[in-house]
Amino acid sequence: MEYFLFILGFGLLIYGADLLVNGASAIGSKLNIPDTVIGLTIVALGTSLPEVVINVFASVRGDTSLAISNVLGSNMMNILLIVGTASIIYPLKITRSTTYRDIPVNFFAVILLALLINDAYFGFGEISRLGPIEGLFFLLLIIIYIVVSLRKSKIENEPDPRSIGTPFMKSLLLLLLGVAMMVIGGRWIVNGTIKVSELLGISSSEVGLVVVATATSLPELATSVIAAIKKNPGIAVGNAVGSCIFNIFLVLGLSSVITPLPFDLTSTYDMLMVLLASMLIFIFVFTGRGRQIERWEGILMIVIYFGYMVYRLGFN
């Protein structure tokens, strides 16, 4: 029964996030909130909501390895697999805002995380962990990121198509239903992780890195692939990179405020891979033809992703 609820939980989580975003976007439009504000808050947050829900439940339960591996695995997949796949479908010409804001901020977020989790290495404690102070700092940074993004964006108060013909009460019902489905789905996933790890003979962190992170990244994968097919590279890359920023600053920030997140040796390897992924996309965008990710670069990112997954599951 636990295995069935574990699988069903992903469906509830992802569909619930979609309902929540649609309901909140419709309500925002009816309240005359500009689409730019909705996109940089509700919709951007919506892509990270599955990670938020799972990490909150994992942190409350004290399963810090799941909370950490979920975010690191999701960020690896967002950059290496999702951006890589999208660039194979259609070479990605990166927008100016993504090039000079989102990609550098993501690189900064990864560097900052790598520094803050190595307390013991720098002599600031006996163990390496992300504590409540760092968590609050991360939450402050995501607020600053949103505010700066809004100020740099052109505010256009156009109606959101999702709000047309949608009554206010129906939108509110969708929002509440989405929240309820995400809470139930998140609880089932976290509770089922232990059972699945025992069945497969692997640790909960490995389940989080591969299974949970993959499932929670499905919204980003679908969005970026569809955007690439429609030849809209700005959304394809901005969606994935923006989600990485929210995962670090919001998801890990909120999780570490609830309970300190210690980092073990295997998590350090995952952290290094996230750092490598962020460096690759940074280098690819600022070299070559300029502000573009070519197909061969996408193939290289995918090979690195699956190569590391095989290594991680086979040798750790």
What do you see in this structure?
With 316 residues, this protein is mostly helical. It has one domain (2-315): A middle domain of Talin 1. 79% of the residues lie in helices and 3% in strands. It has 11 helices and 4 strands. The protein has helices at 2-30, 35-61, 64-89, 96-116, 132-152, 168-200, 204-216, 218-229, 233-258, 265-286, 295-315, and strands at 92-93, 129-130, 261-262, 292-293. The strands form 2 sheets. It has a two-stranded antiparallel ribbon. Strands 2-3 form a two-stranded antiparallel ribbon. Helix 3 (64-89) runs parallel beside helix 10 (265-286) and helix 3 runs antiparallel to helix 11 (295-315). The two termini are 29 Å apart. Residues 155-164 have low confidence and may be disordered.
Q: What are the key terms here?
A:
316 residues; mainly alpha; two-stranded antiparallel ribbon; globular
Question: How do you describe this structure in short?
Answer:
This protein is mainly alpha-helical and 316 residues long. It has eleven helices and four strands. Helix content is 79%, strand content 3%.
Number of helices: 11
CATH architecture: Up-down Bundle
- Radius of gyration of CA atoms, rounded to a whole number: 19 Å
* Beta-strand segment tally: 4
Q: Estimate the mean pLDDT confidence.
A: 76
Shape: globular
Task: Give the total of domains.
Answer: 1
In terms of topology, how is this protein built?
Blueprint lengths: L1 H29 L4 H27 L2 H26 L2 E2 L2 H21 L12 E2 L1 H21 L15 H33 L3 H13 L1 H12 L3 H26 L2 E2 L2 H22 L5 E2 L1 H21 L1
Antiparallel strand pairs: 1-4, 2-3
